[in-house]
Amino acid sequence: MVSCRSFSDSRRPLREAALALLAWLAVAPIVVADDVALPLVTVLTVEGEQAEGGLKRLDDEGVQLDDGTAKTLPLESVVSLQLGSNSEPPQTSGNWLLFANGDRIAAEAVRFDGEFVQTRPNRGIVSDEWQVPVEVLSAMTWSLDGSRLARMQSRLQPGELREDLLLLANADRVTGELIEFDERTVTIETSVGEIPVERSRLAGLAFNPDLVVAPAAPVRGAVIGFHDGSRLTVQSARFIPDSDDAGRDTIEVEPLFGDSIRLSLAAVSSIELLRPDLRCLAEVDPAEVTMEQTPYLSSAPPPVWNDSVAGSPLRLRGGAPARGIGVLSGTTLTFALQPGDESFLAIVGIDDAADGQGSARFSILLDGKEAWTSSELTGRDDPVVAGPIDLAGASELTLRVDFGAYGDIRDFADWCTPVIVRTPTE
């Protein structure tokens, strides 16, 4: 890779902790006119309640829903917002940007000048082009079936390699130092000199991991989940209603790098809040989790962080949660609790990848004792809110999924938005 990479943004100081939680949403109130159609939202609170209604207002007092009562929810009580669902996931071209922090965006990498990658985003980002500093990217894919993204990510893992990697469509590999690329050709410096490769022959590109810098997660912010499986962590977000009532509502966000961008609200499926009193188990290093599996027959796939165990983005009845853990039934995950952990809640169900099949029971255990269990859920049942479960006095939290009536056939079980509510530290 070129040695000119630098990431000054990664050293950018975090916002003052004393700022109100609204710092990630907006400073000025935004009120939607009474005669404008409101986007429907379901808000999950720390008490495990779900409030539904049209998104009326976001300001420093909280989230106001038009549910007949003009209810305002204080932001510190909110875990996530679900913004509608799609019966069928949007089709992507297979062009993906894979970020070092685990984010991913459906977008085509158009050209690279040694410092920035110019991209052409999918419909989620309201812009013809989006400039991304190369050091925040771990890999990218070109012109592949979007459903194969998980497989492509594993093939683009650099392992012990400390060079850039070009993955050809026929599975051949070329390693070296990326020089540049445009819409026709990728040029890489190898041990035998510069080699131009036609873009049409490439499946993907992985960057030298020694030169990749994952920007630090913000203390306050949000993780945006998109219907197409994209996921983006942001420092701030602001709802901007369409004054013409033409269905063009947007969210203006400040990513972890670069200038603010606008997202089409119609493309956004979920917003999960980041703040000190919320600890998402989908962000815990899998190496720190104790896993046990009891396969129904001979073997079972391992759990998948932030995707379904089927290898596709998390989807529950058309909704696309930004974060979660996908497992097959017969899987148990145990997490060590920390001082200040107060309660746990999640949204559970059988992933849409099961096509209505599957059957499993979800259970939550504290120090080995069952604290909550679901009824048998199938791929046709609505998701269920698990919790909140009081964690007082416990040292271990266990998430278990047991077989249902049909063994583990298509038991693609999802623990979505699995968060521990902690004692506020500010």
Number of helices: 1
Helix/strand-derived category reads mainly beta
Radius of gyration: 22 Å
Q: How far from one another are the termini? A: 42 Å
Main sheet record = 11 strands, antiparallel
Proportion of residues in β-strands: over 45%
User: What's the pLDDT, averaged over the residues?
Assistant: 85
Shape: globular
**Which runs of at least 5 residues are low in confidence (pLDDT < 50)?**
1-33
Helix content: under 10%
- Compute the number of strand runs: 33
Structure notes:
The protein has 426 residues and is mainly beta. Helix content is 2%, strand content 46%. The strands form 4 sheets. Strands 1, 2, 3, 4, 5, 6, 17, 18, 19, 20 and 21 form an 11-stranded antiparallel β-sheet that branches. The protein has a 10-stranded antiparallel β-sheet with strand order 10-9-8-7-11-16-12-13-14-15, with helices on one face. Strands 22, 24, 25, 27, 31 and 33 form a 6-stranded antiparallel β-sheet that branches. A hairpin with a 2-residue loop joins strand 14 (185-190) and strand 15.
Give me a quick take on this structure.
With 426 residues, this protein is an all-beta fold. 2% of the residues lie in helices and 46% in strands.
Write the layout of secondary structure elements.
Blueprint (H helix, E strand, L loop, with lengths): L29 E2 L8 E6 L4 E10 L2 E5 L4 E3 L4 E5 L13 E4 L4 E9 L3 E6 L8 E4 L3 E5 L7 H7 L8 E5 L4 E9 L3 E6 L2 E6 L3 E5 L14 E6 L4 E10 L9 E6 L5 E4 L3 E7 L3 E3 L9 E4 L10 E2 L18 E5 L2 E6 L4 E10 L8 E8 L2 E5 L3 E2 L5 E7 L5 E8 L8 E11 L4
